Amino acid sequence: MKTFPSALPEPDITPLRGGPVLRWGVLAPGRIAGEFVRTLHHNTDQRVHAVASRDPERARSFAAAYAIPRAYGSYTQLVEDPSIDIVYVASPHSEHKRQALLAIAAGKHVLVEKPMALNAAEAREIADAARAAGVFAMEAMWTRFLPQTVLIDRLLRDGVLGDIRLVTADFGVRFDFDPEGRIFNPALGGGALLDLAVYPIWFAHFVLGTPTRVLATGELARTGVDGQTALVLTNAMGAQALVHTTLFAHTPNEAAISGALARIQVETRFIAPGGFTLISHTSDARLRWADPSALRGGEGLAYQATAAAQHIADGLEESPLHPLERTIAVLETIDAARRQVGGAP
Fold first, then answer.
1. Other CB atoms closer than 10 Å to residue 232's CB: what's the count?
2. 148 — alpha (psi -120 to 50), left (phi > 0) or beta?
3. What is the CA radius of gyration of the chain?
4. Whole-number Å distance between alpha carbons of 115 and 49
5. Percent helix, strand, coil in the chain (nearest 5)?
6. CA angle, 119 then 125 then 129, to 5°
7. Lowest mean pLDDT across 2-16, 40-54, 202-216
8. Backbone phi, then psi, for 202, in 5-degree steps?
9. pLDDT at residue 3 in the model
């Protein structure tokens, strides 16, 4: 049993600069793709060399905005570009599997936006294809690679919290109703579980492992996608996670881990660079850690890119921090919740 630390160690993260550099290609330019390219070019040595869209003008406009050398009017052109090492898939959820398999078939490594696919079966297809092709594949669960998460992982492995009994996490955002947009459109993989809850459900898996029981209750949006869901996830040891997500309101976006000896309170927004407080249950001691970098919000996407570059340089075909089996297990939990709520495909 570990005693409460007198100070928190520094997180052992992959440096943002000075390591191996990949030549990136981006499929499907949009808001998240823009954030990704911006933080790579501003905060790392990684460089995006090409972008592709089904709309050639959209590709050219994105390339001009982010100083990307090549713009393609088809996804096939990009994945067949011999100068590209890795493809970042940033399309709507419904296109993830198709575009990831296209890149893998061309021999490219892939980083696929979360959720990796619409369901666990599709994610398994991507994982199997990548393994068969001998290329690196990873879901872009950027929160896992943030310094705060790396440090929390060390505290968990060191047993500082003692026997963990409860994890809480939420992510809710109020969206204006648009039946054609990706958030509410079933054809585009809409719904809170896939778009938002992938984060707190992943966090529960990260701390407690794969649950043996999933209980979910919720409300559907007018288009039939899941609009709001509360979940209780129970693991084999009886520890539980309480997870909530919604498209109808802004929620605190906080997370906490409660053990017999101590608790970790992750500050809002727990998915992005920030901080947390370690609170003792056996004394008045508490320690706060805050990310010392200037990176905030979507700039934190940089960490997953440099980690991927290092993994590939090390000859790995998946990330030991966020392995493909975890991606699949999280989607299995989402599949179960969608069936219970009524928003399953």
1. 14
2. alpha
3. 20
4. 25
5. 35, 25, 40
6. 150
7. 2-16
8. -60, -45
9. 82
Where are any strands of DSSP class E within 140-250? Answer: 164-172, 213-220, 226-234, 240-246
- How many angstroms separate the CA atoms of 285 and 160, rounded? 13
In this structure, the number of other CB atoms found within 10 A of the CB of residue 319 comes to 24
Tokens of 189: 């993989």
72: left (phi over 0), alpha (psi -120 to 50) or beta: beta
Cα separations in angstroms, 166 against 27, 88, 191: 39, 35, 26
CB of 1 closer than 8 Å to CB of 159: yes
* Residue 326 contacts residue 140 (beta carbons within 8 Å): no
Q: Which tens digits make up the pLDDT trace of 82-107?
A: 999 999 999 999 999 999 999 999 99
Q: What is the pLDDT of residues 212-244, one digit of tens each?
A: 999 999 999 999 999 999 999 999 999 999 999
Q: Is 159 helix (H, G, I), strand (E, B) or coil?
A: coil
**pTM summary value:** 0.97
Both tokens of residue 263? Answer: 């608790």
**Angstrom distance (rounded) from CA 277 to CA 273:** 14
Contacts of 271 (CB under 8 A, 6+ apart): 142, 143, 171, 199, 253
